[in-house]
Amino acid sequence: MTPISYFMVLSGILFAIGVVGVLIRRNIIVMFMSIELMLNAVNLAFIAMGRQIGSIDGQVIVFFVITVAAAEAAVGLGIIISLFRNRATVNADELNLMRW
Amino acid sequence: MPMWLFFFLAALAVIAALGVILQRNPVHCLLGLAVNLLDMGVVFIGLGAVTVGFLQIIIYVGAIMVLFLFVIWLLNLQAEGLSGYLGLKFFGAIGAAALAAELAVIFLHAAPISRLVAAPATQGSIASLGRSLFSDYLIAFEVTSVLLLAAVVGAIGLARRIPSSVAADRDEQMRTSISAPVTTDSERRERRSA
Questions:
Q1: Which residue of B has its CA nearest to A16?
Q2: Which A residues, 22 through 81, put their C-beta within 8 Å of a C-beta on chain B?
Q3: CA-to-CA distance for A31 and A19, rounded, in angstroms?
Q4: Is residue B154 within 8 angstroms of chain A, CB to CB?
Q5: Which of A9, A51, A69, B170 is buried most deeply by CB count within 10 Å?
Q6: Minimal Cα distance from A32: which residue of B?
Q7: If we measure between CA atoms, which residue out of B52, B7, B160 comes closest to residue A40?
Q8: Using 50, 70 and 90 to split pLDDT, how confident is the model at B13?
Q9: For residue A74, is it within any domain?
Q10: Does the beta carbon of B99 lie under 8 angstroms from any beta carbon of chain A?
């Protein structure tokens, strides 16, 4: 059997990888994928801690997170398509119209 | 979950996640993400959350990943070169490594989660999840359905192609309102016919 702390460490590592992905990539779609990575790392933490305290609430919250992630992916990809149609780029550095 | 299985799945998850952020081609990034999410689904099942693990595989890997793939193909994205501010990337990577190390130290030294508990056998079955979902979390469940409806309408509204006549009209309105803020309808019609 594996201690729950190992799962939490895995969750932290995956979250950090997602943070690095958002920071070092300039392609909006890949940044979006990195956000999904972070969401998933947090899901792992919820499930592991729910298992630890013997409660099902963690799994219910993960269920809601998956639902919200699906809605977020649909709306976010719609925004990206609309953006690409108007500006013909998905590079985050070139989208500086509202930059101060 | 046995120790060797955990380490195998953890190594696979970390390698796939690194593939997401290091591959040049967006389709390869997406394949890395799919492997990572599939792997996480297996970890969830190994932790006793059977229903959520299968939901993860069906919804994430089956639906959301396909949506990403369609968008990448639709936009015809090619492999990208190195661009942007290298200093930000450098310090971002160092900061995130520090974050991971800090979390690892904290979790490994937290006494309450370092020992083992055996979960009850029914934990994570569809019956127990459904009972909780439709009693304690009923309002959240209903709000989720409204959220999904709003997301569907919003996604269609965002991605819809505006007919060219309407778009031209809107562009002209914006241009005239910027150049001459006070214009009557007749003036605008004259300008359009001119």
A1: B96
A2: 23-27, 29-30, 32-34, 36-37, 40, 43-44, 47-52, 54, 56-60, 62-64, 66-75, 77-81
A3: 9
A4: yes
A5: A51
A6: B68
A7: B52
A8: very high
A9: yes
A10: yes
Q: What b/e string do you get for A66-84 counting C-beta neighbours within 10 Å, with b at 16 or more?
A: bbebbbbbbbbbbbbbbbb
Q: Which residues pair with A27 in a beta bridge?
A: A91
Residue B92 to residue A24, Cβ atoms within 8 A: yes
- Fold observed for domain B1-122: Four Helix Bundle (Hemerythrin (Met), subunit A) (1.20.120)
Strand, coil or helix: what is A27?
A: strand
The answer to the question of residue A99 being in a domain is no
Is there a contact between B64 and A36 if contact means CB atoms under 8 Å apart? yes
Query: pLDDT above 90 covers what percent of chain B?
Result: 36
Instruction: Give the gap in angstroms from C-alpha B191 to the nearest C-alpha of chain A.
Output: 25
More confident residue, B189 or B31: B31
Domains: count for chain A: 1
The type of residue at A36 is E
In this prediction the pTM is: 0.83
Average pLDDT (B162-172) is 70
Average pLDDT over residues B85-110: 84
Q: With cut-offs at 50, 70 and 90, classify the pLDDT of residue A65.
A: very high
